[in-house]
Design a protein that fits this description.
alpha+beta, Spore Coat Polysaccharide Biosynthesis Protein SpsA, Chain A, ten-stranded mixed beta sheet, 18 helices
């Protein structure tokens, strides 16, 4: 072996070892949570003895197999004092092993009645305001006389029926419930994960009924120039049409004469609206509603195939509940059990489909894909809502022509006090965007950016916040998995030290093996990931590149600090050393000249001479020199 090759291999091994040491510095959950609690909480009691609980303004239902966090009583006391409307309180929990190390945090959403019906997610600690407990008919006269402080249980069946009546009495199944709250702190340390199995396998015995009758279901299907796709959709509805009162309204915004004739033949006995116009999903759905006679409105994409009748029976039963707004179901990609939609989550990058592309053959994050879940929005690819609630929310907003109109409807319903629900035990097949094409062109991306900006102009309080997605879960990036925040807590945005691309890098080549993606290019930061496929990423320095889009200009670069991304390790298992492939560059004080910049990533090999560039397919728009996070 030539000496140059031996030297090269020695350098590569050295870079690999340095990479491994960087990965080892990832903070673990135990250290992270203890530091967080020490820095963010006032001193609390050192133990959770019954007599200590007895001095509080609340009483507890408490799991025996574990122990309270020493600060939990103070946290709960403060919460009840600061939130006078709160009658019942629950919170997060984790596991503390015999070695004293903490692991496996379980972060809970805000009050989610439909999740509660499927499993006892409040879990190991339920605190009840004492004065409410004393007047609540389910507490029992014996306990009232004792002035009980803590009622212990080990098995869910010891507490489930009692909790059902308690949560009903507290108003948990009324519209706009504000009397039941989740406290975003670790209140309890279970002795092991098995403690939670009973909660997750314990559905409620409550039987809820809607205030109105089922009546007629009006199915509204926007469609254009795809009669063969529409036929599959209509055929899949045949069983439902035979078993319940249903009308179908197809809204066509301009099929060709040939396809129009085919659709007319398909829709015999149905309502067919032919209105040539530019594609506007919101307007088409609203046109269908104007013709609809039913008290239940089912919006259905023409590229959705439903299965059987159970899905609609369950959607109708749920939609008729007075506290429920929009109802959706789980959607799969064709010929698979790969998840396309299981409820919309309002991430930092905007409304997102968590668990998208994951196989639906196991439980993800405490049953997020298995149980019915309340959420801010569900996709209108298959959405059912009562007519009066739809109009109360203002219908679909027609200035949102293509994207986020269903999300905006969900936001409006939630702001009106309704719970939107995705039914995860029912599913349909979604041939996503077949009738409209994909959103991967620059023009469509710009339109999507405009519509997401408009969405948050209408609902500014919901930007970067989702009450059903706990704050200690990671909200950044587009990882399909639901992950605790501590895993990426070290990903602090780096300084935007933009410089002209050095001349020594001018001989780069563009190569598709550089996979660069930008997930967020907002006023605060530029965030994404970039890896070199089929090579050792530990051997590369990476530079984020900005190239002016209008006229000749110098390329700017900033050397990237590696940010940990566990999703890259999971999604690219056959690639080497990609875990630090993330990047996050602050926009604060960047000093870029106004204009639009093409974004790319340059990878420079630290041992060889290779310099390769890949473009991310996105642009950064700088309005003026004050366009920074500090000045917005």
């Amino acid at each position: 072996m030539a000496w140059k090759e031996r030297v090269k291999q020695t350098l590569v091994r050295s870079l690999d070892r340095a990479y491994e040491k960087k990965l080892e510095k990832k903070i673990g959950y135990d250290a992270w949570v203890r530091k967080r609690e020490q820095s963010g909480a006032a001193d609390g009691p050192e133990s959770a003895r019954d007599e200590t609980v007895g001095t509080r303004s609340f009483v507890l239902f408490l799991q025996r197999r574990g122990k309270l966090n020493p600060r939990a009583l103070d946290w709960m006391e403060n919460y009840f004092r600061e939130h006078e409307e709160c009658l019942v309180l629950y919170g997060d929990e984790d596991v503390m092993g015999k070695d004293g190390m903490r692991r496996t945090p379980w972060y809970k959403p805000c009050w989610s009645p439909d999740l509660y019906l499927d499993c006892f997610y409040p879990g190991s600690v339920v605190a009840v305001r004492r004065e409410f407990a004393e007047r609540c008919p389910d507490m029992g006269e014996t306990e009232k006389r004792k002035g009980f402080s803590a009622w212990y249980y080990e098995r869910p069946e010891q507490v489930r029926e009692r909790m059902d009546r308690l949560f009903v009495e507290a108003g948990g199944f009324k519209r706009g419930c504000r009397t039941i709250s989740a406290l975003p702190e670790i209140l309890f340390h279970a002795e092991d994960e098995a403690v939670w199995d009973g909660y997750l396998e314990s559905p409620s015995g409550l039987k809820l009924a809607g205030e109105s009758e089922e009546g007629l279901v009006s199915v509204i299907i926007p469609s254009r120039d795809h009669p063969e796709i529409l036929k599959k959709c209509l055929d899949s509805l045949a069983q439902c049409r035979a078993s319940r009162k249903m009308e179908i309204i197809v809204v066509d915004n301009g099929s060709s004469a040939e396809n129009r004739a085919k659709v007319e033949a398909l829709t015999q006995g149905m309502t067919y609206l032919y209105v040539p116009m530019e594609f506007n999903y919101s307007a088409m759905c609203n046109m269908g509603v104007e013709k609809a006679r039913g008290n239940l409105l089912l919006f259905l994409n023409d590229d959705v195939e439903v299965h059987g009748t159970q899905w609609l029976d369950q959607m109708v039963s749920k939609a008729l509940l007075p506290y429920v707004g929009a109802v959706g179901i789980k959607l799969y990609y064709p010929d698979s059990i790969k998840i396309q939609h299981a409820g919309v989550i309002n991430m930092a990058v905007g409304p997102s489909h968590k668990m998208q592309f994951l196989e639906d053959n196991k439980s993800y994050y405490f049953g997020r894909n298995q149980y019915d879940h309340d959420c801010l929005a569900v996709t209108a690819a298959c959405l059912l809502v009562e007519r009066n609630k739809f109009f109360q929310a203002g219908g679909f907003k027609e200035d949102l022509k293509v994207a986020y109109n269903d999300v905006e409807l969900g936001f409006c319903l939630w702001e009106a006090g309704y719970q939107n629900v995705v039914l995860n035990k029912c599913h349909a097949t979604h041939h996503e965007s077949l009738s409209r094409g994909s959103d991967d062109t620059e023009e469509k991306k710009k339109r999507q950016d405009r519509e997401i900006a408009l969405l948050y102009e209408k609902h500014p309080a919901l930007r970067r916040w989702d009450p059903y997605y706990p704050e200690l879960l990671d909200m950044e990036g587009l990882d399909s998995y639901i992950q605790p925040l501590y895993l990426t807590a070290g990903n602090i945005p780096q300084k935007p030290d933009w410089k002209e691309l050095p001349g020594k890098f001018a001989d780069y080549r563009e190569d598709n093996c550089v996979m660069a993606r930008v997930e967020l290019d907002g006023p605060e930061k530029i965030q994404g990931y970039g890896v070199v496929l089929w090579d050792d990423n530990a051997c590369y320095d990476r530079y984020l590149i900005l190239e002016p889009e209008s006229g000749p200009g110098k390329k700017l670069c900033v050397k990237l600090e590696g940010k940990y991304r566990g999703d890259l390790e999971r999604n690219l298992p056959d690639q080497k050393n990609v875990g630090l492939g993330g990047f996050c560059v602050s926009r604060s004080g960047e000093g870029l000249a106004p204009g639009s910049y093409r974004i790319g990533m340059l990878a420079v090999h630290r041992v060889g001479r290779l310099k390769i560039l890949g473009w991310a397919g996105k642009s950064l728009h700088v309005e003026n020199l004050a366009d920074t996070a500090e000045n917005r």
